[in-house]
Amino acid sequence: MKLRKNINQEEQKCSPVTKTICKLKQRDTQHQISNKVVLPILTVPRPLSTFIKSAVELKLSLSCPQERCLGGLRENPCTYNYKVCRVDQYADLFFFSLEQYDRDQFSKQQVCQLIKNMNDQYSEQALECVENRFKILDNFKDQTLLSENELLELEKIVSQYPFQCTIQNVNQLNSVLSQRILNQKFLDVMGITKDMMFDHLKETQALPTIFNLDGTLKNWCELAKYSVEGREYFDFYLNTYEGAQYKCKVEQKQIFKQSSLDPNQIIFIEFRIIHIDPSSMKSLYRQERILKNHAEYFNLKNSDLVLNQFKTQTNYLDAKNYKITRPCGHKKIDKIIPS
Prior knowledge:
Elements: H1 2-13, E1 21-27, E2 30-36, E3 51-52, E4 60-61, E5 74-75, E6 82-90, E7 93-100, H2 108-117, H3 123-134, H4 136-139, H5 148-158, E8 163-170, E9 175-183, H6 184-190, H7 194-204, E10 208-209, H8 217-229, E11 233-239, E12 245-258, E13 266-275, H9 278-284, H10 287-297, H11 304-314, E14 323-324, E15 331-332
């Protein structure tokens, strides 16, 4: 919570959307270049018809573009209508500050009409979810607000598990995402390294999600319903980078806090904590698994890093351990113990 406040204060002082500025100045018939080097922001064109933007954050997608997926991981709904304008890392925590894309906004009636036109068996349930989502604008002042000390205690508990967190600003006009937070344990379960995540973000401006969101109304309705109801625990299918899928128990914690910037606004914080079955935990947290995925993503299969890992796993012996016993060059090779 304290780190998030520091980030917000810094963003108020200076805009996070910056670029390198080169200005030519003429002095004594010579051109001099004045450079101001700051954090570059990559803008990637996106099809406007794929994602639905409204006054309330729905996180609803009509399709799931494969080019925006990281291996077997779908795109995180937080980057459907937002670009990541800043990334902060503190120890094992990653903070992604979000900024809305400038695009047309659908009214609630238009969103409902789009869903009706899909002729999906889950259309009726999706329409109900949309209605319930919009109710947050009417009753946001009725929410029970959590104190800072209570939030700090909760943060200590969730840090022991893989978790992700979204932060949303809510007032009577709209609800807007401001940040997404996750920890290193969450990346480990997905089977990716932070370098993979950052490289994918640079190329696509999209973040990966562990949840199986495939662009269908069925999965969206499930997660939207659990969120609207404030369900404390639910089972859901999760994806990994390798394309594997497994059922897992998700603990959901929803918190409402008074905004320190606007008395007519509250902050809605939603934690999703992953509780892994002990039988799955051992394989998911294997460093060899994550290393293999990293090597595959960056095409490092023949690198020294992967080679050394292979040698360790197979008890491979280098040539210096071969014993030459005959002048003709025959070698007696030490026995290789299978792993």
